[in-house]
Each structure stands twice: as structure tokens, then as C-alpha cells.
Amino acid sequence: MAQWEEEIERNFRRMKNLAGMIMDPREPRTGQTPRQEIHRKNKSRLYRYESLRTFRTPVMFVPNLGISRPYIFDLLPGSSFIEHMTRQGFDFYLLDWGVFGPEDNGLTVEDCVTKILPRMADKVLESSGARELSVLGYCMGAPLSAAFIAAYPEVPVRSFTNMAGPIDFSKVGLFGLWLDKKYFNVDRFVDTLGAIPADMVKAGFKLLKPTMDLSTNLNLWWNLWNDKYVEGFSALNRWANEYVAFPGEFFRQWVRDFYQDNKLYRGELRLGGRPVRLSAIRCPVFVVGASEDYIAPPACVRALVDAVSSRDKEYVELPGGHISLIAGRGAAMHCWPKVSGWLAPRSD
């Protein structure tokens, strides 16, 4: 009995130490992979993570805009997708969309696809000295990237990788139901609020799976003896609760054109006067879905494979959810090697 009491006491001490780590902004230290800012446009930044350049083709990584911060991709040494890619020899460029304020409410999807992404791609080519680049999109960054590649066939894109990015929004799950035009008036919503507050974004994601926090904390309790697990939990927990607001006009166009009208998948989207048809994509395409993803269910992600005209195209479905696909022990075992392994022969 005394042994159990000692174990409980030790676990409570660890919980107290964990609480201190979470509250202390110095702990843990995320984003440690060395980087250089290459370009900035308004709030957006392009960062270069140099490698030994085993492969000549640089990778431009496009994450989601708003919602969350991009340090999830460089969480901790040994638990970093960016670190993995640079160690594999890829010259890696991260687009950080930035943290938005009321002054950014006029930013639209069209601005991102027709102004920011083409400029960032040019800067990747200029900085690397390469003739082509590979584009890798995660979450919302994947449909934005797909729209960019489809609308700008003159940009020399060597390959495109979609990691958990929704394409067919008729299969997007609970978010699609909530945002259906029968129930949700996006114009009234944006006209009333302006920007979409970070707390409202957080509430939406929490409501998708209300029991997630409970199961996460239970997992923490059973792993309190593991210092490495606790450190990773602290970093991931901070990221998971650091939500970012949506610019109002971006949210309006995103909901209306993608969730409600499914224009990207249907081939009806026009941005900057250009038609955006996924069939215009002919470069090699790799699509990665997560079997337990309730934010971008596998069916809506896999749809890209059937929509493009590429001859070299592949879909893989890996275990895990939307976040664990890209971060954590499962990602390091399953997803990261798949992505770098697929890119390697298509990057020389």
C-alpha cells in the first residue's frame, strides 16, 4: 500500500512540475532548427531551413492560414518534421502566414493564392538557385496550394504533396454540416464580427470532439513517469491551445467557395481572373490521409488523386488523426519517412 502511495505522490509532483512548465513561457523551447528569413509580405514570412542539399529541388511548405501557429512542424529536437526533412537533405522553406489583427480583415483567399503564393515561390527559386520547386501543403495549406498550382501552370512545380488537406468538401464531415448554407449565413456572420476571434475558432475545434481533452489528460496521467513524453505533451499542449484569428474576408470566401459551393473540386473556382481547375495539375502528386481524421476525413483528402491529370500519383492512408499525422511519435514513424521517401526520387 505504501508503494502505491509513493507512486501517487510522485505522479502528483510531476503534475505540479508539468503545470509549471506549461505556465512558464520559457519552457519548453520550440522551433530550434536554425532558419533564415528570406522574404516578408505584410504579415507573411518565408523562412529557409538549409540542409546539405542532397537533393537539388527545394521544398516550399504551405501550412494552414489562421487557426494555429506553425511551430508545430518544428516542435522539439527529435520531434520536428522540419528537422527530419533537412536531415534527409531537402532545402526546406516554410511559409508562415502570420498572426492576424483587425487591420488584416480585407485579406482574401484570392490574395493568398494569386499574390502571396506566387511571390513566395519566386523567392524560393531565387534563394535556392533551382529551376524547379516541390510544393507541400498541410491542412488548409493543401487546397490553397492546389489552387495556386492549378491557376499558375507556368510556375515550375516539380511535385505536389497533400498532407491531410481537404479537396472534396462534400465529404468533409461535421464542419461541412455546420457550415452548410442552409444553416450558416456566412455574410451575416462576417459582417457582424469582422474577424473571426481566436476563442471562437478554438470552440469550433473543441466541439468537433468534446472528449478529446479528457482522453489527452488520461494519456498524460499514465505517462507521467516518462520525462520525454511530458516534455512533448507540454509543447504540444501549448500549441493546441494557442489559436489564431481568421481575417474576416478570408473566412467569408473560404466558407462560401470551398465549404458551401465546393468550387475547387467542381472546377468552378476563379481567382484573379484565372480558372482554377485541378485537372490542370500534371506534376507528380502524393496524397496522405489519416484514418482517424475528423477534420479532413480521408475521403475528402483522397479526392485529389482522381481530380488531377498527373500520371504519377499515389494515395496512402496512415494511422492517426489530423494532428498526429504531422506531429508526435507516430508521425516520425509513419508519415515523415513516407513523405521524404516519395519526394527523394522526384527531387533530383
Q: What count of domains describes the coordinates? A: 1
Which class in CATH terms? Alpha Beta
- Secondary-structure content class: alpha/beta
Q: Report the major sheet.
A: 8 strands, mixed
Strand arrangement across the biggest beta sheet: 1-2-4-3-5-6-9-10
- With helices defined by DSSP (H or I, 4 residues minimum), what is the helix count? 13
CATH homologous superfamily designation: Alpha/Beta hydrolase fold, catalytic domain
The name of the CATH architecture is 3-Layer(aba) Sandwich
Outline the low-pLDDT stretches.
21-26, 217-226
Helical content stands at 40-55%
Rg calc: 20 Å
Number of strands: 10
The coarse silhouette is: globular
Order of helices and strands: HEEEHEHEHEHHHHHHHEEEHEH
State the distance separating the first and last CA atoms: 63 Å
